[in-house]
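Materials and Methods. Structural model of (2Fe-2S)-binding protein. The 122-residue sequence of (2Fe-2S)-binding protein from Cereibacter sphaeroides was retrieved and submitted for structure prediction as follows.
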Amino acid sequence: MANITFTSPIMHGPKTVYAVAGDTKTILAVAEEHRIPIPFDCKDGNCASCLIEVTYEEPSLRKGITLTEKEKAKLRELGKITAQEIQDAEVLDLPPRYRLACQFIARDENVTVAFSGEPGGA
Ligand code: FES
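The predicted structure was written out as tokens:
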């Protein structure tokens, strides 16, 4: 079980929801299920409307990830991933600060997901 706390200036306050461990829903799917208004368009990693900033309750316990080439390329195009973060993702399997909500699978860890409410605005 993981707590996912969504926060945005367009929400009345932060909202924490529980994601079931082993579930393979994306953060965007969890948000939709709970009526959390993360902007989206393609749901396929192409438009970047769903850009989010993710912080980890226990940064040292961040789970390994597989950052797809598509997500990496899109984040690079937006200037939302550093060379160090790309290296950390490729070598250490560590997630970067910004993600695409439609590509990020909720895992068994507590995270805070921030978004501006503007498409691509994180
Ligand atoms: Fe288009 Fe996520 S909705 S990249």
